[in-house]
Write a structure and sequence with these properties.
By secondary structure, this protein is α+β, with helices and mostly antiparallel strands. Helices cover 26% and strands 22% of the residues. The protein has 5 helices and 8 strands, in the order ααβαββββαβββα. The strands form 2 sheets. It has a 6-stranded mixed sheet with strand order 1-8-7-6-3-4, covered by helices on one side. The chain has a two-stranded antiparallel sheet with strand order 2-5. It is globular and about 50 Å long. The mean pLDDT is 89.
Length: 199
């Protein structure tokens, strides 16, 4: 993630910023989330904190378990401005990563992530309660599973919505009688809806 982030910062920074400023959407999943964080596109504090001249406010590092985690997790939507999110709809998605732990540089940054609405998704259990491993599969700060920027048009998350776009991709799909939807599709459907309405 860091290598691609450096390439983006040194060769695509202006074009990417113009893309976001034009109202377009950016989605980074798993390694893509790592890239957005390492390139300082996320969390995208409005005062410019976290840009090249300042210390990196957030990073993503090794899982607390010390190993690759491949499991399904529940995500609770937190942000009210992120256009990819369907408010109040808890979703169930797979994770597959060895380095997915979201960390903040210090307590002040951690507080800003919460108070300024940068937390997009939080790891929770089936009832919507945060908890330790395996509910939080990597040990992320405050159970953070995804972040958004100040515009709500940039989303980075560790779980994989693209791996649950059809009901047969669910580990218990044969028991989902009457459920046609796939939780991962909500992220993409919301993005398409936003584009149709605003671009």
């Amino acid at each position: 993630g860091k290598i691609l982030a450096n390439q983006m910062v040194h060769h695509l920074a202006d074009a990417l910023q113009e893309f976001v400023d034009d109202g377009k959407l950016v989605l980074g999943i798993c390694n893509g989330f790592q890239v957005l964080v390492k390139a300082r596109i996320l969390p995208g504090f409005s005062d410019g904190a976290g840009r090249e001249t300042a210390p990196q406010p957030v990073s993503i590092t090794n899982n607390d378990s010390g190993k690759f985690e491949d499991r399904w997790v529940y995500l609770e939507p937190v942000s009210e401005r992120c256009v990819f999110i369907e408010p109040e709809r808890r979703i169930y998605l797979p994770v597959a990563h060895g380095e997915g732990k979201v960390v903040a540089r210090d307590r002040a940054v951690a507080d800003r992530l919460e108070s300024e609405g940068h937390v997009a998704f939080r790891y929770v259990d089936r009832q919507g309660r945060p908890g330790p491993f395996p509910i939080n599969p990597n040990g992320s700060l405050n159970s953070i599973a995804g972040l958004t920027d100040t515009t709500g048009r940039v989303l980075g998350l560790m779980p994989h919505p693209e791996r649950f776009v059809h009901r047969t991709q669910h580990p218990h799909w044969t028991r989902l009688a009457g459920q046609d939807g796939a939780d991962g599709m909500t992220v993409f459907d919301n993005a398409v809806r936003f584009v149709k309405q605003h671009l």
